[in-house]
Each structure stands twice: as structure tokens, then as C-alpha cells.
Design a protein that fits this description.
about 70 residues; mainly alpha; 3 helices; about 75% helix
């Protein structure tokens, strides 16, 4: 159970890592029914989304660099 609790905390931390977003608190009971594989999949999805957002931010910033 300890590993699942850590995975749930990791999901919550990822959700709270976005700037300008109100802190998210997850009731562990809501995710407790999920297996570790599902929780890891959620973390992977959040990391992928964060990476895509970062890439689009870099692309957006690059347009100013080349147009200056």
C-alpha cells in the first residue's frame, strides 16, 4: 500500500506543479481502487502533457528570437 500512496502523492505533486493553478488536493480514497500500473499510467500522461506544454512554450519563445 505504501507504493500506491507515494504514486498518489506524485500525481498530486505533478498537478500542483503548474504555475497559476490553484493547489489540488486528492483524496487518496478516490485513487486507492486503482492498481499501481494505472497510477503510473496517469503519471506518465501528466509528464507527457507537461513536456508538450514545455515544447510549445519554447517554440513560442523562439518566434520572438528569430523575428527580432
Amino acid at each position: 500500500m505504501e507504493k500506491k500512496e507515494q504514486l498518489i502523492k506524485d500525481i498530486q505533486n505533478l498537478l500542483n506543479s503548474y504555475d497559476g493553478v490553484r493547489p489540488t488536493s486528492i483524496n487518496p480514497d478516490l485513487l486507492n481502487f486503482m492498481d499501481e500500473e494505472t497510477l503510473i499510467s496517469i503519471i506518465d500522461s501528466l509528464l507527457t502533457q507537461k513536456e508538450k506544454n514545455s515544447e510549445s512554450d519554447v517554440e513560442w519563445l523562439e518566434q520572438f528570437k528569430t523575428n527580432s
